[in-house]
Amino acid sequence: MIFPKIIKNLNRLTKKQPQILYLFSILLTINIISVTAQQYDADTANVYRRMLNDPTDDLMEDHPADDIYGQIWTSVKLNPYLTPIDSLKDSIKISCADFYLPTPGYITSKFGARRYRYHYGTDLKLQTGDSVRAAFDGKIRIIDYEKLGYGHYIVVRHNNGLETVYAHLSKVLVELNQDVAGGAVIALGGNTGRSTGSHLHFEFRYLGNAINPEKIVNFETGCIRDSVYLLTKRKTFDYLQEVKEMQSAKYYTVRSGDNLGKIAARHGTSVNAICRLNGIKSTKILRIGERLRVR
């Protein structure tokens, strides 16, 4: 083999000229560094390429919708995934750089608890017939109508992994399974379904789980808060405790002869507690058929 001969000759030369060993060690070190650098570059070229395009300090995770949702594609259910929050990663980065405001109207109702139910979106003012635009590039997953709910509504699955809901529409301008570009007009606003005036009910969802739109969008400026939204179990879904409390709430329908004292005694609570839960005063005159929260 060639290496034993090289070593034998090197030993013979270095006995006569020690500086040869010194020069050889330098050349060997340079060669090792060069080979290592080439390998390092080959292994990390894609990483650096991604870093150049990433607006954050660390690397952006890729979130193609197909990888997130797999083969689940249905036009029947808004949330067919039934993915528990606890099963999600602790933190997930979602690119929101190519966002378009669905409608420029001001907020008329925020995400959060209502008296008897939870409101999972942000309501934006518009006039019937105003354009409604897709928030991001995506594909139309649902076009449906709910008489006592969303009215005419659309669900779009986006390439960044989010899904958006547009409800109370007067007219739908797209077709099921159609690819749409961010900013494209997909519908006209309206007042259909369970609605008390023309507005757009707008939702963000991730694997079926609702996200407060104001965590992603500043509706006063019409711009996203950051080009990358960091979804975390604790901050993104901090409303879940409130939802649980609402789900465990108990209500009573006022009957003839009732007053707050009788109702409180019947349910083992106090008049002050009932007033606090319902946002009423102890002097309120009750109406037969009125619902009051007692727990």
Please provide a written account of the structure.
The protein is an alpha+beta fold. It has three domains: 2-53, no CATH class; 85-244, Glucose Permease (Domain IIA); 249-293, LysM domain (Membrane-bound Lytic Murein Transglycosylase D, Chain A, Roll). The protein has seven helices and 18 strands. It has helices spanning 2-16, 18-53, 65-69, 233-236, 240-247, 260-266, 271-278, and strands at 91-95, 107-109, 112-113, 118-119, 122-125, 131-133, 138-146, 151-158, 163-172, 179-180, 185-189, 199-206, 209-211, 217-218, 223-224, 228-232, 251-253, 291-293. The strands form five sheets. Strands 2, 5, 6, 7, 8, 9, 10, 11, 12 and 13 form a ten-stranded antiparallel β-sheet that branches. The protein has a two-stranded antiparallel sheet with strand order 1-16. Helix 1 crosses helix 2. Residues 35-62 have low confidence and may be disordered.
The CATH topology annotation of the largest domain reads as Glucose Permease (Domain IIA)
Low-confidence stretches: 35-62
Quaternary structure classification: single chain
| Helix proportion range | 25-40%
Mean pLDDT: 84
The class by helix and strand makeup works out as: alpha+beta
List the helices and strands in order. Answer: HHHEEEEEEEEEEEEEEEEHHEHHE
CATH architecture of the largest domain: Distorted Sandwich
Q: Which CATH C-level class of the largest domain is it? A: Mainly Beta
**Which radius of gyration do the C-alpha atoms yield?**
31 Å
What proportion strand? 25-35%
Shape: globular
